[in-house]
Write a structure and sequence with these properties.
The protein is built from 3 helices and 6 strands. The chain is of the alpha+beta class. It starts with a helix and ends in a 14-residue tail after the last strand.
Amino acid sequence: MNTLIEKDQIKELKARYFRGLDSKDWSLFSSTMTIDVQGRYSDGQLSFDGREPLVQFMDENLSLGTVITMHHGHHPEITVADGGETATGVWYLQDMVIDLVGKTRLYGAAIYQDEYRKEDGEWLISKTGYSRTFEFVEPLSENHVVLQNMFSD
């Protein structure tokens, strides 16, 4: 086992997770997780057991063309264990959610705690969630203009 290669594969997995989330590609997002994934977001305020309810929640709440998100994961701390079959990861999150109907912008940061499991030779997220370091919501000004939104009609 080459630990550096395993860690790099986990970094790419988390990148696909964020890309699937922000591009609203629910098939891609779903493919990053085990079927029995546990999700605990916002200090457990949003909790999901299983891939289907987690993806369904994100789809129902983020797929509107009026909700734009950005999630960046930084500074990964990854530990590979069990001969390369399981791993843990800590990530620093920076995120933003723009609600064009509610005319608000949320931005904040959090610490993600992840667990990963290798299934059929591929790393998948088996547990994920974060605790907020801060979250700030502000109204969008009346002069706020969105120049481009890939999700609007």
